[in-house]
TrEMBL record:
EC annotation from Swiss-Prot or TrEMBL: 4.2.3.4
Catalytic activity: 7-phospho-2-dehydro-3-deoxy-D-arabino-heptonate = 3-dehydroquinate + phosphate
Primary location recorded for the protein, binned into one broad class: cytoplasm
Any one GO BP annotation for this protein: amino acid biosynthetic process
This protein's name: 3-dehydroquinate synthase
Length: 364
């Protein structure tokens, strides 16, 4: 088992990564749980795939799990289900020192973490992330949120979990497309700060995508280490370090917006394309050797991720995409702070990127 200590704001917790953790969830959580009754929130897909396993694991350890099963999908990160979860936790008589288990992907983690942050002014919660994206990204760092009519993730709180159990076996029931989307965020950690890890991905990515649990464990542990290191130094996004985690996300969000945040492009798929574009744009500005930039799309193609805009079948004209970027909150007088690459393994925030230049690049 890999154990990654996370220490953010003096509230240390562990991210444990190992095959079989879900089937051992009762023993893993036992030292933290004060009562027999344990609230578990999940979504319908995860319940179908892993509900019995986790329920049996908790019962074996002497607990009495109480289940709240929500609809699967991004729409569940809403006021409606936030209220539903909070009211349910109150009815379950959850106290501040109790722990709520969040079993699922980023949707469940974000929603339950937010509910925990406000229940009785903050109760504890444990993340059992079941998507690769949740294991390497959303379950670490303490950001929680819901979506509202005004946009995604605009209402939320910083609230750290008490424990994270990341089980690579959970990914065996996850659709391959979702694994690929999470994998893009894995590659991101290599690109932004760890060249040997990107080389590791080049060597092992295809076998990892095909299901090798040992490789998945290593990739998750290394990603969590990278994220934890960055977040520990910039918990509230004040010194710019945390911004590095947005590599590929400016282009990615524009593409997501262009596809109407629909199933045509998952977030991670947008990020993969976004990192390819960020690398090529860096090469165009003479920052990065072209051959280095091209390693990125070659690798994504090798693991079955779309790496070229043309594969999206979108009208991706530069003006249109830049218009989406203008909607992003970070816009500043015709230029955009933009994450570029100096080399594979070294991202930096360029503050002087002209939107006209980006639009021209996209149209080339
Ligand atoms: P998700 O939670 O919607 O899961 C994707 C799909 O996979 C869902 O249909 C889900 O039911 C299903 N699923 C989950 N685990 C499964 C399993 N083991 N087997 C079978 N099916 C399974 O999406 P996600 O990609 O995990 O997370 C996306 C969310 O995470 C977004 O709302 C995003 O804003 C958020 N996010 C948050 C942070 C953060 O720092 N808090 C970071 C990145 C993303
Ligand atoms: Zn992302």
């Amino acid at each position: 088992m890999a154990v990654v200590p996370v220490d953010i704001a003096g509230r240390p917790y562990e991210v444990r990564v190992a095959p079989g953790l879900l089937a051992d969830a009762g023993n893993q959580c036992a030292p933290l749980l004060r009562k027999a009754r344990v609230p578990v929130v999940t979504d319908a897909n995860v319940e179908a795939a892993w509900g019995k396993t986790v329920d049996a694991a908790l019962r074996r350890a002497g607990f009495e799990p109480r289940w709240k099963v929500l609809p699967a999908g991004e729409a569940t990160k809403s006021w409606r289900y936030l209220a539903e979860v909070v009211d349910w936790l109150l009815a379950e008589e959850v106290e501040r020192k109790d722990h709520v288990l969040a079993l699922g992907g980023g949707v469940i983690g974000d929603l339950v973490g937010f509910a925990a942050s406000m229940l009785k002014r903050g109760c504890r919660f444990i993340q059992l992330p079941t998507t690769l994206l949740a294991q390497v990204d959303s379950s670490v760092g303490g950001k929680t949120a819901i979506n509202t009519a005004a946009g995604k993730n605009l209402v939320g709180a910083f609230h750290q979990p008490a424990l994270v159990l990341a089980d690579p076996l959970a990914l065996e029931t996850l659709p391959r497309r979702e694994v690929g989307a999470g994998y893009a965020e894995v590659v991101k950690y290599g690109l932004l700060g760890d060249a040997p890890f990107f080389a590791w991905c080049e060597a092992h990515g295809p076998a990892l995508m095909d299901g090798d649990p040992a490789l998945r464990e290593q990739a998750v542990a290394r990603s969590v280490q990278a994220k934890a290191r960055i977040v520990a130094q910039d918990e509230f996004e004040t010194n710019g370090l945390r911004a590095l985690l947005n590599l590929g996300h400016t282009f990615g969000h524009a593409l997501e917006a262009e596809t109407g945040f629909s199933n045509r492009l998952l977030h991670g798929e947008g990020v993969a394309l976004g990192m390819v574009l960020a690398a090529r744009y860096s090469a165009r500005r003479g920052l990065l050797a072209e051959a280095e930039a091209e390693r990125i799309p070659v690798h994504f193609a090798a693991v079955g991720l779309r790496a070229e805009l043309a594969e999206l079948g979108l009208d991706t004209d530069g003006r249109g995409l830049v218009a989406h970027m203008l909607h992003d909150k970070k816009m500043d007088a015709g230029t955009l702070p933009f994450l570029l690459l100096r080399s594979i393994g070294e991202a930096f925030l360029a503050r002087d990127v002209a939107l006209d230049d980006v639009a021209a690049f996209l149209d080339e």
